[in-house]
Specification:
365 residues, eight-stranded mixed β-sheet, five-stranded parallel β-sheet
């Protein structure tokens, strides 16, 4: 076995949140390394469907210290975001090691043990810089659909060229489901979308009114300041926002109708190998895309810091039960803006400050 490495702070994940924490630690001269499972920084964005664009305009999409290189009112594509993250790490010379997938995180005495393949790293502090959407979730009955029906999870969908000849059922009527359904319908694929109505925002996100009036209020005030774990309104809203589908943001119900997407009841099971709807109908389709969400995928964290719902027990990313362990990138980690670039940046700065403060405390002791 290779000799153990010793690194003061390990950041797991080189997405926007991990790079942001890295920026602040570099400024504070804290020794650290960022471990990224993908072969390139930004691949978590590159591997999503081809037509994906961000919901926030570029004005709000730049990480601290480096504005996003696009018109402030444009909506970056997923590849533009991926390339920006790669350029950000290069610009600030952040110590990212790609192609390193962490298999296990455990605690040994006063330090953590990070295991990645045959590597073992001892770290005084560890940051989990990953969203809680790591494992695709599909219903159990997916396994008894007819063998000739192509099944994809939204995580594996790229473009309509993947589909077999015939109709498509998109299971899940949230933002991912609506955008994939639109993608398929525009390509001429007969498309049905099942699931409960999640509602929709009552404005076009690319309109001038949204850019100059609605977005600043929503992003900077409502999601960023009003809806946080420190406000009564935020504490009431958080369980709903973390467990329910968000309202449709870019796609409107009228867009789906115009594109030819047919809304149907929830998919509740399988009959004769075909998807069964809640109204007792079956759909004879050749393709199914499951837009049914994700599980956290944190089973590799062998530290008892999770609550009954599988969420890490933390405040603003700091885990009191395991000093030196932190989370960033989680939905509503601190506020409704935690999943947005500008909100995530605030969370990253708070965690970096906590890392520095604990380091000084340990050194003094």
């Amino acid at each position: 076995m290779a000799e153990r490495e010793r690194i003061d702070t390990v950041i797991i994940g080189a997405g926007q949140s991990g790079l942001s924490v890295g920026y602040h630690l570099a400024k504070r001269r804290v020794p650290f390394v960022i471990l990224e499972a993908n072969q390139r920084i930004g691949d978590s964005w590159r591997h999503r469907w081809d037509s994906l664009r961000l919901f926030t305009p570029a004005r709000y999409d730049g990480l601290v210290g480096l504005p996003f290189p696009a018109s402030g009112s444009s909506f970056p594509t997923k590849d533009e975001m991926a390339d920006y993250l790669e350029a950000y790490a290069r610009h600030f010379d952040l110590p990212v090691q790609t192609g390193v997938r962490v298999d296990r995180l455990s605690r040994e005495g006063d330090h953590f043990l990070v295991e990645a393949g045959n590597r073992q790293i001892e770290a005084r502090q560890v940051v989990i810089a990953m969203a809680g959407f790591q494992q695709s979730r599909v219903p159990p009955f997916a396994g008894v659909l007819r063998a000739d029906i192509l099944q994809l999870h939204s995580r594996d969908y790229r473009n309509p060229g993947q589909f077999r000849e015939g109709g498509l059922l998109v299971v899940g009527a949230g933002n991912s489901g609506a955008e994939i359904a639109m993608d398929a319908a525009r390509a001429g694929v007969p498309t049905w979308m099942s699931g409960r109505d999640t509602g929709h925002v009552p404005f076009r996100i690319d309109s001038r009114i949204a850019y100059y009036m609605v977005a600043p209020v929503l992003f900077r005030v409502v999601f960023h300041r009003v809806l946080s774990v420190d406000t009564p309104m935020g504490r009431r809203a958080r369980p709903h926002m973390t467990s329910k589908g968000a309202p449709l943001i870019r796609v409107k119900p009228s867009d789906l109708r115009s594109a030819g997407v047919t809304r149907v009841e929830r998919t509740v099971g399988v009959r004769d190998g075909l998807p069964l709807l809640a109204d007792d109908r079956t759909l004879d389709v050749a393709n199914v895309v499951w837009c049914t969400g994700f599980d956290p995928g944190f089973s590799w964290i062998d530290v008892p810091v999770f609550g009954p719902r599988g969420e890490p027990m933390q405040y603003r990313g700091v885990v009191a039960a395991a000093p030196g362990l932190y989370f960033v990138g989680l939905h509503f980690l601190y506020s409704g803006s935690s999943a947005m670039i500008h909100g995530m940046a605030r969370d990253a700065r708070y965690v970096a400050d906590a890392i520095v403060a604990r380091g000084r405390k340990v050194a003094a002791a």
